[in-house]
Amino acid sequence: MSTDHDFPWDIGIHDAHCHPTDTMASIASIPHMKARSLTVMATRGEDQNLVQQITQSVNSQESSEALGRIVPCFGWHPWFSHQILDDTPQSSNIHSQGISTEQKEAHYTAVLTPSPAEDAEFLKFLPTPKPLSKLIAETRERLKSYPYALVGEIGLDKSFRLPSAWTTQELDNRNDQITPGSRENRRLSPYKVKMEHQKAVLGAQLRLAGEMQRAVSVHSVQAHGAVFDTLKGLWAGHEKVVMSRRDREKRKDAEGALSEDEDAGDEHTSLPLPFPPRICMHSYSGPVEPLRQFLNKTNPSDVYFSFSCLINFSGAGAGKVIDVVKMLPEGRILIESDLHTAGPQMDDLLEQVARQICEVRGWELRKGVQQLADNWKRFVFG
Fold first, then answer.
1. Which residues form a coiled coil (predicted)?
2. In this structure, are residues 35 and 15 in contact, taking their beta carbons and an 8 Å threshold?
């Protein structure tokens, strides 16, 4: 990787996906970072308010003309999707009476595989689930408070297993600098969240993003096909109509010059739409083949792909990501740290991944960093 040029921080480096609220002690370093913007994800019950809090505290230190260093994102990660109860058919009962112990156990028995019905200790450890309708209502209000907020981190994960219940020793030794709610190195249980339930939680959040016309950041592990199928179902009936070369010539003759990027005819634009306008496949780890599906010109959402050193440019996946980055349109590439601690390490990872992307694409460094900055602005703001 070339390191013979000073890095052009002056252009603006934008982290498309990170988790600094997992280490709240690091938040004080954000105003001193070299990165221009951090797109900060919420993932679970413990960090929704924290994302809101740091947005207010950090952005208040910026000039009144500036958007602010933090772009907040509110969403429920698939690793915690079991904590959401799909109450669509019975919302009135749950809102009026709360969720009983029997409903809690029935919920977890239904959404986890294998069934934990005989594992009373594990069921006791699990929290009372939040109704999906309540999650969507709360997220809607947060999005209203921040006109440029995104929906994220959301998605699907076929490989994740729930951590086991805390042992007394683990609780005594846990790092209290880490925001509660994550695995924190506990051993894994045999339980996974059924894909059908993950899709229900994902679909509700995608529809909310469509309603509010917000971009989304999507987690996908061994589930790129399932993510695409979920999106395709929401896109149905709203596909762009791609004109043939012959139709383009006819329209050009009839109406005069046709814009170079005007590839589609009239499309359905009535609001609200059931899908987000822009989608980021974060730390995309899939092969080249699915790119054609995600980037098909008939798709009514613009799909971006972000890359990180931690996930993409280390280990066995490093060779695969090079082919993916080479194949993507230059306007659909983003960079991220995916780091859980703000500060110099986050800056270093962003510089590394920007340099790697520029090298793979054959971009001169300033040109490449400008392209990545433009891509992020288009992804967030449209």
1. none
2. yes
Cα–Cα distances (Å) from 231 to 101, 225, 293, 348, in that order, read 34, 10, 11, 34
Count CB neighbours of 268 within 10 A: 11
Query: Rounded distance, CA 267 to CA 281, Å?
Result: 24
Sorted by where each begins, the domain ranges of the chain are 10-84+144-242+270-381
For domain 10-84+144-242+270-381, is the CATH number 3.40.50.720? no
Residues 6+ apart with CB under 8 A from 38: 14, 15, 18, 20, 30, 69, 70, 71, 342, 346
Query: β-strands 333-335, 84-85: how paired?
Result: unpaired
Say if strands 192-193 and 278-281 run parallel, antiparallel, or are unpaired.
unpaired
DSSP state of 364: -
What's this model's pTM, rounded to 2 decimal places?
Answer: 0.92
Read off the pLDDT of residues 13-32 as tens digits, 9 standing for 90 and up: 999 999 999 999 999 999 99
